[in-house]
Amino acid sequence: MRGRAPLIILVLTACAVAAFLALASSALVPAVGQEGAKYVGSKACKMCHGDQHKAWEEMKHSKAFDVLTEEQVKTGKDDKGRACVSCHTTGYGNGGFTDVEKTPDLKNVGCESCHGAGSLHKAAMLKAMATEEVPEDKQISKSVGCVQCHNPHISYKKLYGK
After folding, report:
1. Are 119 and 69 in the same domain?
2. I need a surface site. Which of 30, 56, 57, 118 has the fewest CB within 10 A?
């Protein structure tokens, strides 16, 4: 039995890590592909997610389209037949990017490439900001940013008593 203890500990540790990763990933990453949502582009996300947008602007993802050649943009593929445009844009072939003239805000790999089309989220947040009655002592300037309340350390119910 003594020789099996390390193996048992290893198996239990692996199970705990797998369970943690499964729970963490489902809790932290919003569902992709919300039915009925349309792509709005990363500029729309900047309104509430300014810090994240600024960080994205410094990433290679924000300039992913720029590395494509004219031929790759025209055909959508490279010389090996790989679909370049679909990976270097947001929502290509899925209601998003079509071309630079029609959908310029969807060129590059933007927020919605991972988080899904954002029109419904944006509409819901704008409606909440416009119609929600907040107690006088809990009001914040809209320029403060969403993280004032949308924060894993602050409960909306606790903050607003709802």
Report:
1. yes
2. 30
Has residue 35 been placed in a domain? no
Measured CA to CA, the distance from residue 47 to residue 122 in angstroms comes to 10
Residue 123 pLDDT > 90, yes or no? no
Residue for token digits 């630079």? 100
Q: Which domain holds residue 159?
A: 132-162
CA distance 55 to 58: 5
Cα(159)–Cα(45) distance, integer angstroms: 24
> In total, how many domains does the chain have?
3
Asked whether residue 64 is assigned to any structural domain, the reply reads yes
Torsion angles phi and psi, residue 111, rounded to 5:
-50, -45
Same domain? For 54 and 88 the reply is yes
pTM: 0.60
Whether the Cβ atoms of residue 82 and residue 65 lie closer than 8 Å to each other: no
pLDDT digits (tens, 9 = 90+) for 46-101: 988 888 999 999 999 999 999 999 888 888 887 777 788 888 999 988 899 999 99
